[in-house]
Specification:
Layout: H1 2-12, E1 19-24, H2 32-45, E2 50-54, H3 62-65, H4 74-78, E3 88-90, E4 96-98, H5 112-128, E5 131-135, H6 142-150, E6 153-158, H7 162-178, E7 183-191, H8 194-212, E8 217-223, H9 226-234, H10 238-241, H11 246-260, H12 274-286
Parallel strand pairs: 1-5, 1-6, 2-4, 2-5, 6-7, 7-8
Antiparallel strand pairs: 3-4
Helix pairs in contact: 1-5, 1-6, 2-11, 7-8
């Protein structure tokens, strides 16, 4: 499989073709797929041709978050049971997606033929789309590491929980040992305060620098927001359902800066609380 992995890398890193981005997390439950869905949707609003490939084969949820069906999945294509055109479906704002499929009884055994079909698919997608986003399953396997080494950029999603931070670092370390030139972008999800998100991201950045001598880029933070849960229940991306919500505005800024290559950490404003603000104002005056 080494020859196929190298071929995949060479195909996906050709200049002048669509940009490939893998979205990863060290552990599940951090909102990675939700981020991928909304980040991709916002990219599509800028008249970009965007496709999400759900790489969590057999346990995919991208189509569910989009509120769409999928007669065929990536698994069907890889096993030669469907053509590439038959596994591509359309979501909102012209966004396209390939479902990972659900209900897989066992682990998918990768073969050389599957890798060849994977390479052929990505080669075709790169000539059609401006951005190809791979929503990776949590953790790392040999074949997923081969894919991660092949893509242009990797966005690492973590939360402020210690286990999430540790697992995010471990994931980046595995990939870094495979490719020391890989571009990492950090995003902290579900933060309660601006300071909490900034502290988490800085800790990850400093750890990568100290132990791996690797500089990584901070994208920013997204807040804990009950609107996200409501959007998931309604199976509509929150960026579509709540276009003026603070979380959507923050993600729009993050997406725009990434797209333009003007990366500067975007932090969510602290939740407004007039009562607490007034108390702080009173006490600060009283201490003067």
């Amino acid at each position: 499989m080494r020859d196929q992995a190298e071929s995949l890398r060479m195909k996906m890193q050709q200049k002048g073709l669509g940009k490939s981005i893998a979205v990863v997390s060290g552990k599940g439950g951090v909102g990675k797929s939700n981020f991928t869905t909304n980040f991709s949707n916002i990219l599509a609003t800028y008249d970009k041709k965007v496709i999400i490939v759900d790489m969590d084969i057999g346990m995919g949820n991208i189509h569910i978050l989009l509120g769409k069906g999928s007669r065929n999945s990536l698994k069907d294509y890889l096993q030669g049971e469907a053509s590439l055109e038959q596994v591509i479906f359309e979501g909102s704002n012209g966004l396209h997606y390939i479902s990972g499929g659900t209900g897989l009884a066992g682990l998918l055994e990768w073969t050389e033929l599957m890798f060849d079909r994977l390479i052929a698919a990505f080669e075709s997608l790169q000539t059609t789309y401006d951005y190809i986003l791979f929503d990776m399953g949590a953790g790392a396997t040999n074949w997923s590491l081969d894919l991660l080494v092949a893509v242009d950029d990797i966005i690492v999603v973590a939360t402020t929980e210690p286990t999430s931070i540790t697992d995010a670092y471990s994931m980046m370390k595995y990939i870094h040992y495979k490719d020391r030139e890989k571009n990492f972008y950090l995003l902290c999800n579900r933060v309660l305060t601006r300071e909490e998100g900034t502290d988490t991201l800085n800790r990850l950045k400093q750890t990568m620098s100290r132990f791996l001598s690797k500089d990584v880029t901070i994208l920013g933070s997204l807040p804990e927001d009950k609107l996200v849960r409501q959007a998931v229940k309604r199976q509509v991306p929150f960026s579509v359902l709540y276009p003026n919500a603070p979380i959507t505005k923050t993600l729009k800024e993050i997406t725009y800066r990434y797209m333009k290559g003007n990366i500067q950490e975007v932090v969510v404003p602290n939740p407004s609380n007039k009562f607490i603000s007034k108390l702080r104002s009173i006490f600060s005056k009283g201490s003067d």
